[in-house]
């Protein structure tokens, strides 16, 4: 009986799935514009951008756009140099362990800053701010709480372009109630068969 309880508890436990976006999953856009909103739907995330976030090939690919940046997890990165200077990620379920890398790029200024906001159920739950280092000197920002929405934006005097790369998170997958009920029936059947066999 203890073995059946152990197996049941393992099967009912949620499984953790890791999400990673390196921007090298697809060919670089190499043109100004918003990041395609549904590009990463298969990971349970939608991007909301107005004029920023398209992907660029990086230094290893001839530096299209003259960003002077090389991504941190592959050469391609998401670039921001439009009027909005940011975007929003909407997750299909709560996520934990969210992190990203960011760096200022060519044309930016010393003292430019970057902000990441974590939101859960429409409420701001965490804010992280950094002052960028040198061009192509990437910083990792990591949220420490569960979120279902992440917003980031850059700030500076005048033109303040920057890049983002290596976005990571963990999401929990919880079994559907019907699956749990079927699993319960299966465990009960095993227990009954075992009891009947030993009698």
Radius of gyration, CA atoms, in whole angstroms: 22 Å
Tell how many strands the DSSP assignment holds: 10
And the CATH topology? Jelly Rolls
The gross shape turns out to be: globular
Give the second-level CATH assignment, the architecture: Sandwich
What is the CATH homologous superfamily assignment?
A: Protein of unknown function DUF4465
Order of helices and strands: HEEEEEEEEEEH
Integer count of domains: 1
CATH class category label: Mainly Beta
Ranges where pLDDT stays below 50 over 5 or more residues in a row are: 5-14, 174-183
The CA-CA distance between the termini, in Å, is: 15 Å
For the biggest sheet, the summary is: 10 strands, antiparallel
The secondary-structure class comes to alpha+beta
Helix content: 10-25%
Q: Counting H and I runs of at least 4 residues, what is the number of helices? A: 2
Strand content: 35-45%
Mean pLDDT: 86
Structural features, described:
The chain is an alpha+beta fold. It is 17% helix and 39% strand. The protein has two helices and ten strands. Strands 1, 2, 3, 4, 5, 6, 7, 8, 9 and 10 form a ten-stranded antiparallel β-sheet that branches. The relative contact order is 0.21. Residues 5-14 and 174-183 have low confidence and may be disordered. InterPro entries: Ice-binding_C. It comes from Corallincola holothuriorum. Residues 173-195 form the Ice-binding protein C-terminal domain.
